[in-house]
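Structure (tokenized):
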């Protein structure tokens, strides 16, 4: 067995509190990797869900790998080297982590390109939302893409690994199954419509009504974005159809987990923590959200929600969250004017939003986070100024309501540039040009600087360009991704590969799009 002393995981392990103790011994072992740090990875409920599902499969155990440390990536559980496994399964939710994935392969002395791997190299699998959005940019590095919910694709993957003795036999077997994109066998970029479309195996409404399909935290730890919290998924999909949002169109229609399953999961959390985090694209739209929050409070839990749709802000929800000790709420107006919000598929007027803001501060919440996007199709200077005007109005409401309670509050603006994603109504749209975006961001920064108790997060136009490229490109993006993995700064990569990158980013796309070989389901 190959071992490495590259990283000491013992302090991390000492702080972990498993919700359920799984046997560390199994006939079969899967390397479960997340192409980012432990802190980011263990904040992902999807990653934790796969870890639990592997351990619930008879004779299987999973060992976790992250980017922390230098040299050979070693597992948290045993210190075993990554290249000592027959399969490395990556969970990837953010395109920016493509570079980290390639770097991890290099550190593990696994050939970066799939065509260079031999019989003794691991099968490299990639799942997560990025596999379903557009797997083509990573198709030179990844042997198999799992397209869909882990509950549906993981059993087929593990069965193939159990029953096939040779690496190539595993890959060939998966190529014949729905829900797997295997670049060596599926030549969609060359043959296009000549091949049948690939179906994404999404978690259905019927499955969500069955026991055992509720994703919850497997390991509680202080070393995550949701420190000490037991996370519970409330629903999938979204009742809104915002034109920029892949989750609205790629995750299927809005559906929720049964209330009785959610409440039953609280008993699993009780022995390890008194803090809960309810997560989903539309947490507040669960039909029993108020009941769930109140029952959790009655059991002595402190509760919080990831973010909440503006129409779902109600007296009952705010009272329950406040009673549990939560003082922060996140809303996503996206833009500052009613007209542009209608164009983006979110017909919520500012007057309605400000009513909800007043309700939030009236209930004693002291921190309001507002998320906005710049670079939307049809956006004008007036729309950008509208963001500042809206925030100023929200601040005025805060200054009117909180002093009555003897409180001081703050508003934080999160601002991102539009990345036109595959499978959204704006998938064909070009990204706004760099000069225009920088001017808009500068306008917002100047305006925020004149507003006490209002802050604005960092925004990177270059990262927006890079993300747009690697979310929409084909397999020829491999060269640029590999250059970034070898240490070239993103600005250097963007300049060096500009002839490839700029047409993908700044040109409107027409005709059949390269990622349309997949059906989202």
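Design, position by position:
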């Amino acid at each position: 067995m190959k071992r490495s002393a590259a990283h000491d995981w013992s302090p991390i392990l000492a702080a972990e509190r498993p919700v359920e103790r799984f046997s560390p011994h199994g006939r079969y072992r899967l390397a479960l990797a997340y192409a980012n740090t432990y802190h980011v990875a263990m904040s992902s409920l999807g990653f934790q869900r796969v870890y639990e599902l592997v351990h619930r499969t008879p004779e299987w155990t999973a060992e976790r790998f992250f980017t922390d440390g230098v040299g050979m990536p070693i597992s948290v559980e045993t210190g075993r080297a990554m290249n000592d496994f027959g399969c490395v399964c990556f969970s990837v939710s953010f395109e920016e982590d493509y570079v980290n994935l390639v770097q991890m392969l290099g550190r593990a002395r696994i050939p970066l390109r799939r065509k260079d791997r031999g019989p003794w190299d691991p099968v490299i699998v990639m799942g997560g939302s990025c596999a379903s959005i557009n797997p083509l940019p990573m198709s030179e590095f990844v042997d198999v893409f799992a397209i869909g919910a882990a509950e549906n694709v993981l059993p087929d993957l593990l069965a193939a690994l159990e029953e096939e003795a040779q690496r190539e036999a595993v890959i060939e077997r998966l190529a014949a199954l729905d829900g797997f994109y295997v670049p060596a066998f599926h030549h969609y970029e060359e043959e296009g419509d000549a091949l049948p479309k690939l179906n994404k195996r999404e978690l259905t409404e019927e499955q969500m009504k069955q026991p055992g399909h509720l994703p919850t935290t497997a390991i509680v730890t202080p070393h995550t974005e949701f420190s000490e919290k037991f996370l519970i998924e409330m629903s999938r999909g979204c009742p809104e159809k915002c034109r920029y949002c892949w989750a609205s169109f790629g995750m299927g229609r809005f559906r929720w987990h049964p209330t009785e399953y959610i409440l039953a999961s609280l008993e699993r959390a009780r022995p390890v923590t008194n803090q809960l985090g309810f997560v989903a694209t539309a947490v507040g739209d669960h039909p029993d959200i108020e009941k769930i929050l109140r029952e959790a409070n009655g059991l002595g839990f402190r509760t919080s929600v990831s973010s909440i749709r503006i129409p779902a802000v109600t007296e009952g929800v705010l009272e329950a969250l406040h009673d549990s000790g939560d003082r922060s709420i996140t809303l996503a107006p996206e833009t500052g004017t009613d007209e542009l919000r209608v164009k983006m598929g979110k017909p919520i007027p500012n007057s309605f939003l400000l009513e909800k803001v007043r309700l939030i501060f009236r209930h004693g919440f002291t921190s309001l986070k507002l998320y906005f996007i710049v670079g939307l199709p049809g956006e004008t200077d007036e729309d950008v100024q509208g963001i500042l005007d809206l925030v100023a109005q929200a601040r005025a409401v805060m200054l009117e309501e909180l002093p009555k309670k003897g409180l001081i509050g703050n508003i934080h603006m999160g601002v991102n540039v539009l990345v036109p994603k595959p499978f959204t109504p704006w998938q064909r749209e070009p990204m706004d040009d760099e000069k225009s975006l920088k001017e808009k961001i500068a306008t917002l920064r100047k305006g925020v600087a004149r507003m006490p108790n209002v802050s604005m997060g960092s925004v990177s136009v270059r990262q927006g360009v890079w993300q747009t490229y690697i979310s929409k490109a084909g397999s020829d993006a491999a060269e640029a991704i590999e250059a970034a993995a070898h240490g070239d700064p993103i600005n250097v990569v963007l300049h060096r590969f500009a002839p490839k990158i700029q047409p993908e980013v700044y040109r409107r796309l027409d005709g059949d799009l390269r990622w349309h070989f997949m059906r989202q389901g």
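Reviewer-requested clarification: Residues 381-401 form the longest helix (21 residues). The domain at 10-199 is CATH 3.40.50.280 (Rossmann fold).
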